[in-house]
Amino acid sequence: MQRLHARYPFLETARESVATEAVDLATVVEQDRAVVDRARQRVITALEEGDTGEPHRDARIELLSYPVARVLVSMLEERVLVRKYARAEAETAYDRFTADMADTTELKSVESAGLELSDLLAEFDLHGAVAETASGHRIGVGTYLPLAEDLWGDEWRLVNRSLNAGEVPVDEGELLTLLREAIRTRIEDGLPFEVPDAIATVLEDDAAQIREVLADLELTREIDTVVPDLFPPCMKSLLDQIQKGEHLPHHSRFAITAFLSSIGMTTDQIVELYRVNSSFGEEMTRYQTDHIRGETSPTEYSPPSCATMQSYGDCVNKDDLCERIPHPMAYYEERIDDADDEEIDDWREQPDESDNERASGD
Ligand code: SF4
Questions:
Q1: Where are the domains of the chain?
Q2: Which of 30, 54, 101, 210 has the fewest CB atoms lying closer than 10 Å?
Q3: 137 closest CA partner among 164, 157, 119
Q4: b or e along 129-158 (b: 16 or more beta carbons within 10 Å of the residue's beta carbon)?
Q5: Rounded to the nearest whole angstrom, what is the distance from the C-alpha of residue 79 to the centroid of ligand 1?
Q6: Which atom of ligand 1 is nearest to the CA of 304?
Q7: What is the pLDDT of residues 102-144, one digit of tens each?
Q8: Ligand 1 site, residue 255, Cβ cutoff 6 A
Q9: What is the pLDDT of residue 152?
Q10: What angle, rounded to 10 degrees, do the helices at 33-49 and 79-102 form?
Q11: Ligand 1 binding pocket includes 108 (Cβ within 6 Å)
């Protein structure tokens, strides 16, 4: 059973077994360095790789590292970390349970470390809402909607589903994706929580290491979507000034150009977005953009962090979200993640004549 819990620590029974076996977390973090090391690695790998990394060979250490990882995530109080961590845990669980389900050998049941589809449906109380059909499954619309809410792609939108008597047909792969979402939501719920001082003090260095990774993280090229309405206030302001033909100091022009490049815009698209007034210097823009993108220089530059933006006076019109993020890219990523499909109106997919109007906010 411990192996099963170590592989799927989000299970209710795993939580109970930690509660009975693990005594109190303060003692674990103080006395069991291997657990803390694996917990820190769990979070850092989640940030860097999008999964939780190699499991510890000792199932007890692996299992206990999960609640300690949640403590570490809570200590940082960064929403982007909570999201990335929950996603990575859910992704790891998904890889494991899809492998378990594909595995038809006897070994699995002998070691009882695998999960069946019915186990997962029971875990999330979904048996009543999901029914098997000849071609897949049907799922009640009230259950489907919250599970599909954060999934990308038009195929998940209800209008594109043949809803029948309040039920949505899904194939096997889609059902497993929805279960991954159920896991992610459970992991994300309740994070971050208040960490007792006694535990936080012991884990300070580990939390600092994670903070460093988070700050250094190049969140570049993860988002390939250009929605000026969702830009951070600093970048909106810089873009606005460029489009009005105002002269920007080098650091400001660098910041906005590196930002646009990081969200996936090509040099041509950046030139196009800037080109709304007669004083536009296309040649200079091309030169600078190619340089920042690493096409005419040995380095591809990332946009500056909020701290650097502040020190140059480029951090303006801060809003609530700004208080919680360390980097303009994190701001944009979160806005994109939280936006409804209808809000994701990629500037590059707009008809030409409306581009400049939209981008200038007219
Ligand atoms: S806090 Fe960061 S994202 Fe927000 S306006 Fe300032 S620099 Fe931009």
A1: 2-214, 221-360
A2: 54
A3: 164
A4: bbeeeeeebbbbbebbeebbeeeeeeebee
A5: 15
A6: 7
A7: 876 655 554 557 888 999 999 999 988 898 888 889 999 999 9
A8: no
A9: 62
A10: 90
A11: no
pLDDT tens digits for range 199-225: 999 999 999 999 988 877 644 335 667
Q: How many CB atoms lie within 10 A of CB 358?
A: 15
> 332 C-alpha to center of ligand 1: Å?
10
Question: With a 6 A CB cut-off, is 233 part of the ligand 1 pocket?
Answer: yes
Cα(255)–Cα(311) distance, rounded to whole angstroms? 13
CA of 310 to the centre of ligand 1 (A): 8
Residues making up the annotated binding site for [4Fe-4S] cluster are: 234, 306, 315, 322
C-alpha–C-alpha distance, residues 86 and 252, integer Å:
34
In the structure encoding, which two tokens stand for residue 294, read together? 């690493």
Which residue puts its alpha carbon closest to atom 6 of ligand 1? 315
How far apart are the C-alpha atoms of 230 and 225, rounded to whole Å? 10
DSSP 8-state secondary structure symbol assigned to residue 320: T
331 CB within 6 A, ligand 1: yes
Question: What is the pLDDT, as a whole number, of residue 277?
Answer: 58
Ligand 1 centre distance from Cα of residue 323 (Å): 8
Q: Using most ligand atoms within 8 A of CB, pick from 231, 262, 315 the residue to mutate for ligand 1.
A: 315
Give pLDDT < 70 ranges for the chain: 21-23, 104-112, 152-154, 217-224, 277-280, 296-300, 340-342, 350-362
Is residue 333 within 8 Å of 80, Cβ to Cβ?
yes
Gap between the Cα atoms of 7 and 111, Å rounded: 12
